[in-house]
Write a structure and sequence with these properties.
globular, single chain, mainly alpha
Length: 78
């Protein structure tokens, strides 16, 4: 079960392996995306947030990464 509904739509096409990541996360109801920089972990996570449709907690270790997340959300979703 999820928290309050989140109205979010992904505006970026996923790569095949990102789609696999999201599907696996949804099947298992949890997961961690691991990959090198630039592999699309954040975009896959945004797609997962959209698919789950519920409140999501994103934890990052710095304000800089929080700002990067914000920018990615604005760039890749509605």
């Amino acid at each position: 079960e999820t928290g309050d509904p989140v109205e979010i739509e992904l505006t970026t096409d996923l790569r095949d392996y990102q789609e696999t990541w999201v599907e696996t996360f949804l099947d298992r109801k949890s997961g961690v995306y691991v990959g090198p920089p630039g592999s699309g972990k954040t975009v896959a996570a945004i797609a997962t947030i959209a698919a789950v449709g519920g409140e999501t907690l994103i934890l990052v270790p710095s304000r800089e990464l929080a700002e990067q997340w914000r920018e990615e959300l604005l760039d890749h979703s509605t």
